[in-house]
Design a protein that fits this description.
With 252 residues, the protein is α/β, with parallel strands linked by helices. The chain is built from 9 helices and 11 strands.
Amino acid sequence: MVARHKMSTVKFSKIRVLETGYNTAALNMAIDEALIENIGEVPVLRIYGWRPAAVSIGYFQSIREEVDLEKCSKIGVDVVRRLTGGGAVLHEFELTYSFITKQYPQNIMDSYRWICEAIVISINRLGFDASFVPLNDIAVKGKKVSGSAQTRRKGVLLQHGTLLLGVDVDKMFCILRVPSEKLKDKIIKDVKERVTSLAGTTFDDMASSLKTSFATKFNAKLVDDTVSTEEISRARWLAERKYSSKEWNLRR
């Protein structure tokens, strides 16, 4: 364990970078888990997108309470349960990142801030004025543009999160259930006032800035890599047997 006060100065000699492109929801979550299982001393920064669009729900949520499964099926939106906590998220116009490491602050707040600082730097390099909003959000001019979630397993930290390049709140609430239909319009209005996107930013621009910022923040050499044969084999198994299964997705 590294002392909390020293974590802001922790540097990595290398960061392994995986740009895995657009994948289904099940395979995206499966790749993250395979990387957790295979992580060595070199941390991994993974950059990816979702195709088709997908809803991911937090590990502790009830999928039936959070998502209109029939509507998702009708309009071709994937649904998957994450390893991490937090709320339901529609993944469509965004870049998603994962950062996986064995060395990290043990305090949850510190660990979010530690990683999110690199995300803030990457957004600001593109001309925005972003800031970290505890516990796990990043905002521009008071509006959320990024949210993250974590899990810890056997001494390994996974943090993954979204960077909104666009946002369709009406579509989001077309497939997410709300506590009260009577209040739906008010809820949608409130979200539109609280959430925005990094408009005008392309996926490739964001990816490039993200890599540069992680290298700068951790004083690390970036090692561009591909998912290994063993990792993708394990991920495909997990995608089919776990993340596509009713036993996993409907467990709550």
